[in-house]
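A.,

Following up on our hallway conversation. Structure tokens first:
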């Protein structure tokens, strides 16, 4: 595994809203941009990130952050 520590111009997608179709397009852009590499992508638990319609390319592995936990977030205790 190689850690890339440099400025990286990543694929971007600007849309007026976000949904599963946008997410699938974005994942495909990342996959094509980094087609010779394995990609480990960390995402939150937004509904469009976990939808059954999500099409994850073969070179991308997704891991999810834990669900919202206010007890673990100190700013929530102010």
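Then the amino acids I'd put at each of the 78 positions:
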């Amino acid at each position: 595994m190689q850690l890339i520590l440099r400025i990286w111009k990543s694929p971007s997608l600007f849309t007026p809203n976000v949904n599963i179709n946008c997410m699938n397009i974005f994942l495909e852009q990342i996959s094509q941009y980094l087609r010779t590499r394995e990609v480990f992508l960390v995402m939150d638990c937004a509904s469009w990130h976990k939808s059954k319609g999500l099409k994850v390319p073969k070179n991308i592995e997704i891991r999810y952050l834990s669900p919202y936990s206010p007890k673990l977030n100190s700013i929530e205790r102010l």
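The beta strands are 39-43, 60-64. Curious whether your intuition agrees with the design.

B.
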